[in-house]
Amino acid sequence: MDFPISKNQFVGLVELSEVDSTNKELLRRLDADTPEFFAVTADEQTAGLGRLGRNWVTESGKALAVSILLKPVSTRQTDWITIMAGLALGSALEKFGVKSSLKWPNDILVEGKKLSGILAELVNPSTVVLGIGINIKPQKHSPDTATSLQELGVAIGKDQLLGAIASELRSYWSELLANPEVAIARFQAELSTRCGTLGTKVRAELPGGKNLYGVAVAIDDTGRLIIETPEPVALAAADVWHLRN
Ligand code: BT5
Q1: How far is the CA of 60 from the centre of ligand 1 (A)?
Q2: What share of the chain in percent tops pLDDT 70?
Q3: What is the C-alpha to C-alpha distance for residues 138 and 119, in angstroms, rounded to an integer?
Q4: Which of 27, 56, 116, 139 has most ligand 1 atoms within 8 Å of CB, for mutation?
Q5: CA distance 78 to 176
Q6: Ligand 1 contacts CB of residue 90 (under 6 A)
């Protein structure tokens, strides 16, 4: 289904100049009546969140930070939210001529550097806060591994970007709601072109700190990364580094 490229695709959009974290702010505003696709953005995050309590840099006017409420009805949908968001973002960026690559599970890379990160937080089985950060301009405190649209020579306004994300997310999410099994099979096929992790030698750091080395060969139908070490191991959560093949 096609959705108009417009930030009106959000069902209520709160636009703030400064907040600790848009994910946290959405949680504070959440009640039983908050509609799906309610969203919060901010020009600056003073305590932006990455995974595992890590920091996400969002300096004033330099990046897009948006959090969106999703209401999955089955774990099949919940399992796929992060990867689906990565595919939708890749597709939105492509509309502006940006060729990106998804690093499993939540990074959008361009030329090997991180343009965008995704943080999906499960509040309860039917409530997920999906946070997306995209660098628009270089930032003083972001790591050397970061890039931004400006550094890539791409001039996109925040509203344009937000509109494209809203429209692509609606489209991917409506697919996943309508028929999860069909959508997941399609996402798996799309991953073979959009996911730079597949076919790559990786080091995967597991949540306990253990490292695994192997070739990433597939993403299974629950979104886990399969690496051959050489015996296949399925990873539900890890930090992955792409190594030279
Ligand atoms: C992420 O975590 O990549 C998830 C980022 C999600 C941010 C959004 S912004 C809207 C919403 N509200 C929030 O509070 N958060 C979400 P992770 O994979 O753990 O990566 C975090 C790591 O990325 C950090 O430890 C840094 O090394 C690096 N990093 C921090 N800020 C960055 C930036 N602006 N650009 C690129 N890399 C960054």
Answers
A1: 15
A2: 99
A3: 21
A4: 56
A5: 10
A6: no
From 33, 35, 32, 60, select the one nearest 45 (Cα to Cα): 60
120 lines ligand 1 (CB under 6 A): no
Structure tokens at 68: 């969106």
> Using CA positions, which residue lies closest to atom 21 of ligand 1?
50
CB of 238 within 6 A of ligand 1: the answer is no
Give me 208's structure tokens. 């306990």
* Mean pLDDT across the chain: 96
Q: 244 by DSSP, 3-state: which?
A: coil
Cβ 45 under 6 angstroms from ligand 1: yes
Nearest CA to ligand 1 atom 37: 146
- Per-residue confidence at 245, pLDDT binned at 50, 70, 90? low
What is the spatial distance between Cα 140 and Cα 133, in angstroms, rounded to a whole number?
Answer: 16
pLDDT digits (tens, 9 = 90+) for 197-221: 999 999 999 999 999 999 999 999 9
Residue 100 CA to residue 54 CA, distance in Å, equals 23
Query: Which tens digit of pLDDT belongs to each residue from 34-93?
Result: 999 999 999 999 999 999 999 999 999 999 999 999 999 999 999 999 999 999 999 999
Distances (CA, A) of 242 to 101, 148, 194, 199, 202: 12, 20, 15, 10, 5
Taking each helix axis as running N to C, give the angle between helix 180-194 and helix 75-94, from 0 to 180 degrees, rounded to the nearest 10.
40
Q: Is the pLDDT of residue 153 over 70?
A: yes
How far is ligand 1, taken at its centre, from the CA of residue 118, in Å? 7
Cα 64 to averaged position of ligand 1 atoms, centre (Å): 12
